[in-house]
Specification:
- With about 550 residues, the protein is α+β, with helices and mostly antiparallel strands.
- It has three domains: about 5-155, Immunoglobulin-like (Sandwich), CATH 2.60.40; about 160-340, Beta Polymerase, domain 2 (2-Layer Sandwich), CATH 3.30.460; about 360-550, Rossmann fold.
- It is built from 14 helices and 25 strands.
- The strands form six sheets. Strands 21-20-19-22-23-25-24 form a seven-stranded mixed beta sheet, sandwiched between helices. Strands 11, 12, 13, 14, 15 and 16 form a six-stranded mixed beta sheet that branches.
- A hairpin with a 2-residue loop joins β5 and β6.
- α12 runs parallel beside α13.
- The longest helix has 22 residues, at about 160-180.
- It is globular, with a radius of gyration of 28 Å.
- It starts with a helix and ends in an 8-residue tail after the last strand.
């Protein structure tokens, strides 16, 4: 981007921001009926009561006399006779960084403040932020703004480096999708909204959105197809982050560029279905879009519906023409085709497929070290959910014969490279009782050899039903003298920092699990410890339970 073009982009941003900065408005009596109903670290929310038919109203969040953020009072509109109760919301991810205890924080409409739940017109922050209002002014002058959720960012309008990277990634993915599946990926959601309304990117937008329309009508087939598309992208070298209603795709080179790919489909009658959701609740037919065509977009060529405005209006509702930096999907969404969402199991499988597509530290876990130092372990070890096999290899190096079981093709691809010297790996879904029982019987052999059933981070990644199936199979196949060793996160880890926040985790109470293992499943717990400091990983230190249980009865030492 040339210096002249960049300067022009920043001037346009300043002109838009100037509309949102009255500058010298005083804190006089308010002319608007309304109230701020929530104010905490994460969000400020409230409502306005206005005559029905009033145009969309901009609500400002002020630090002193400086308007830092803007929202529209358009969420959850409720009818009140001849008036409407319109809700607004500000996400505050980075907002408090720029406010100090001496600053007056207020919410205003047309320069007039809205009363707080306390009856006051302003309040003070509880602590000083790391920056201040003057630094925020300087950031705004450089073209930065508060984006969705309240994150400070360079406006997407001015960030041409980001634009280039995401459009290139979109074009690569679109080409692969056409070649492998015959689908034409088009710009979608906020990216499509920006193209229609602003003829470019939306400054406060978070990411680049694209979508395709599946040929399937059955929602589960649609979800399974997105799962398969993800596997093809992983095989092509992209990183895939699974969400329930879309997948995020990161570029091959730096991993810095990211686009979202959404899946749409139709009913047999041709009514479009939106797993992510829409604001409008009526029917929109595929024929209403007029086909997918090429269009210009910030000096590039992309695909978009021929009648893009109709799709935008259906997604965002009647106020789509008004910019709203605080637009909040969880509140605004009124309809979604939830039957086509990726299941937690599909998300978990994709998460681990992506995880094992990259190289990781192969040092044995602390739990494996603990068991080996403890000693008195059976000669045979079955590593349940072995992953890339780092603990399996550690047990084999200590003289044990080891069978590693996992269902992740990516994990097993790495594990098979380390086979031999007493360790072997097999593909097995641990919730498939018959398959797991066959593996256990075959590995144990005809003689009563004792087995250590080892599972680290296993139950955390399983559904409740999957855990019940696994424990029941182990109970049926266990013999006297067998050991069960488990390490897993407990419910006390809820709310703590996670290095990989999108991994599926089912947190459960330690006491309840111990009771479940002992009572119906026939084990005697020998040791258990619930604590931090047992399984630190990167910058997180989770609360985990270490548990060792014995299958009682007479034993033959082997």
């Amino acid at each position: 981007m040339t210096r002249r073009t960049l300067a022009g982009a920043i001037r346009r941003i300043r002109k838009r921001l100037h509309r949102f900065h009255p500058g010298s408005a005083g804190l006089g009596a308010t002319n608007h009926q309304g109230q701020v109903t929530r104010r905490d670290q994460h969000a400020i929310e409230g409502y306005l009561l206005v005559p029905s038919g009033t145009p969309a109203l901009e609500v400002g969040l002020f630090i002193g006399e400086f308007q830092a953020m803007t929202s529209l009072a358009t969420l959850d509109i409720e009818e009140h006779g001849s008036h409407e109760k319109r809700h607004f919301r500000f996400g505050l991810h980075d907002f408090w960084r720029f406010a100090h205890r001496g600053d007056r924080i207020s919410v205003r409409v047309d320069a007039q403040p809205i009363r707080l739940d306390s009856g006051e017109l302003f309040f003070h922050p509880h602590r000083n932020g790391k920056e201040n209002i003057e630094l925020l002014r300087q950031r705004f002058e450089r073209g930065e703004i508060f984006g969705q959720g309240g994150k400070i960012q360079l406006s997407r309008v001015a960030d041409t480096r980001w634009q280039h990277h995401v459009i290139r990634l979109y074009q690569e993915v679109s080409g692969l999708l056409q070649q492998q599946f015959g689908y034409r990926a088009f710009i979608y959601n906020g990216t499509l909204l920006g193209a229609v309304r602003d003829n470019g990117f939306i400054g406060h937008d978070r990411d680049f959105d694209s979508a395709y329309i599946s040929r399937h009508h059955d929602p589960r087939a649609v979800a399974e197809e997105l799962f398969e598309i993800s596997r093809v992208l992983l095989a092509a070298g992209y990183s895939v982050v699974p969400k329930s209603s879309c997948i995020a795709i990161l570029d091959k080179d730096s991993g810095q560029a990211q686009i979202d790919l959404f899946h749409l489909y139709t009913t047999p009658a041709g009514v479009l279905q939106f797993p992510f959701g829409t604001v409008e609740t009526g029917a929109l037919y595929l024929d209403d879009l007029g086909g997918i065509v090429e269009r210009g977009f910030v000096d590039e060529t992309v695909l978009a519906p021929e009648k893009a405005a109709e799709l935008v209006a259906h997604i965002y509702g009647p106020n789509w023409q008004y910019p709203d930096p605080s637009f909040h999907w969880p509140t605004a969404r009124k309809s979604r085709a939830a039957a086509a969402l990726l299941t937690p199991d599909q998300q978990d499988r994709l998460y681990w497929a992506d995880f094992y597509a990259h190289d990781h530290d192969f040092e044995p876990s602390g739990f494996a070290h603990h068991l080996l130092e403890r000693g008195q372990l059976p000669h045979l070890v079955i590593d349940l959910g072995c992953g890339e096999g780092r603990d399996s290899v550690a047990f084999a190096a200590a003289g044990h014969r080891v069978l590693g079981l996992d269902r992740s093709a990516g994990a097993l691809a790495q594990a098979h490279r380390r086979e031999g010297h007493g360790v072997h790996f097999e593909d097995c879904d641990l919730t498939n009782a018959a398959a797991l029982a066959d593996q256990i019987r075959s590995f144990r052999g005809p003689t009563p050899n004792r087995v250590l059933f080892y599972g680290r981070a296993l139950l955390t990644s399983m559904s409740r039903e999957g855990q019940q199936s696994l424990l029941q199979t182990l109970e049926q196949q266990a013999e006297p003298g067998d050991l069960l060793a488990l390490e897993l996160r407990t419910d006390k880890d809820h709310g703590r920092h996670k290095a990989h926040f999108r991994a599926y985790r089912r947190l459960q109470a330690a006491a309840a699990l111990i009771e479940e293992i002992e009572s119906p499943n026939g084990w005697t717990v020998l040791e258990h410890l619930e604590s931090t400091g047992l399984a630190p990983y990167q910058k997180e230190d989770p609360v985990v339970l270490r548990l060792i249980a014995l299958r009682p009865g007479s034993t033959q030492q082997t």
